[in-house]
Amino acid sequence: MAPVVLRSVEEVKAWATGLRREGRRLALVPTMGYLHEGHLSLIREGRRRVDAVAASIFVNPTQFGPREDLSRYPRDFEGDLAKCASAGAEAVFAPTPEVMYPSGYQTYVEVTEVSQGLCGARRPGHFRGVATIVTQLLSLFRPDVALFGEKDYQQLQVIRALNRDLHLGAEIVGMPTIREADGLAMSSRNAYLSAEERQRALSLSRGLRAAVMLLQGGTRDAQALVGAVRHELSQAGLREDYVELVDAERLTPLASVAPGQAARLLVAAFSGATRLIDNMQLGG
Ligand code: AMP
Questions:
Q1: pLDDT by residue (tens digit) across 235-267?
Q2: Is residue 181 part of a domain?
Q3: CA-188 nearest atom, ligand 1
C-alpha cells in the first residue's frame, strides 16, 4: 500500500497520536532520500520489530557545509515513495526546509565528545546539523525504535549520545552496512561517480578488508592496520581525507587493538570530487 505522505508538523503529530491511541508501536527511519537497499534494510528491520514504520525524507541543509553538495544532492521522490511502499513503510514525512527551520528558529543540538574527530573535524558544523534534525524528528515522532546504518558510524554514536542525554526514549538500533556485490558500501552519493571513479572507490572496502585480515593474522598495531587502507587508497589514486583506528564506542584514537577490544577502522577519501566514507569493526 502507498504510504501516507506527511508534510507538516501538525500532520506528523496527528498521525503518531492516532497510532499510539491504537496501541501500535512505531519505528522511525530518518533519511535524505534517493533510497537504496541500505535504507530499505532499515525500514524492513523496523517492520520486523514493531507495528508501523515511518521514514523521513529530508535533505537537511544545516548538516551541509558552504562548499558541499546540498544543491545537487540527488532526489527522486516518486521513486522513493514506491521503494518505501515495497519495504513496508506506512508513512513518509517529507517536509520543506521551512517546516523544520521556520523563521525564528534558533535551537541547535551539540554533542560534544563523539562529534569531535573523524568527519566532525573535517566537516565543521556537520554533526551539529545532524544532531539538531534527529533531535527534532525523535521529539516529533516519539518513536519506540529508531534505526540508523553503521555506514555512518560516527553519526550513529552521535545519535546514541543525544537520545540518551536528552531522554528522548527511543531504542536506537544500528544496522550493518549494505554493500554492492563488489564490496562498495551503498550510498546515495555513489550516483556522482563515473565508471572509473567507482572502480577506484572499491579501494576503501578493499583496504578495510585487508586490515580485518591483518588483525585476524595477529597484527594489532594501528600504524600497520591504517597502513593497509592507505596502501589501497594510494594504489587506486584516491585522495585520503582520513584513515583512523578508534575505540568502537568512544571513538578515541587507538595505538593498537588489545585482545578482546572492540575497535573500529574508519576511512574517508575522495574519488574524483566525491567524498566517500566506509568503516569496519576490528576485534571485539
Ligand atoms: P542518508 O540518506 O545517507 O542520510 O542515510 C539515511 C540512513 O540510512 C542513515 O542511518 C544511514 O546510516 C543509513 N544508510 C546509508 N547507507 C547505508 C548502507 N549502505 N547500509 C546501511 N545503512 C545505510
A1: 999 999 999 999 999 999 999 999 999 999 999
A2: no
A3: 3
Domains of the chain: total = 2
| 78 in a structural domain | yes
Q: Are 142 and 169 in contact (CB under 8 A)?
A: yes
How many CB atoms neighbour CB 160 within 10 A? 16
Among 29, 31, 35, 83, the mutation site with the greatest number of ligand 1 atoms within 8 A of its Cβ is: 31
- pTM, 2 dp: 0.98
Identify whether residues 90 and 69 lie together within a single domain.
yes
List, in sequence order, the alpha helices (H) in the chain.
9-21, 37-49, 77-87, 97-100, 118-122, 126-141, 153-165, 195-216, 222-236
**What range does the domain containing 56 cover?**
4-175
Query: What lines the ligand 1 site, CB under 6 Å?
Result: 31-32, 38-39, 41-42, 148-149, 151-152, 175, 177-178, 185-188
196-245: pLDDT as tens digits: 999 999 999 999 999 999 999 999 999 999 999 999 999 999 999 999 99
Q: Do 266 and 243 touch, CB atoms closer than 8 A? A: yes
Cβ proximity of 251 and 154 under 8 Å: yes
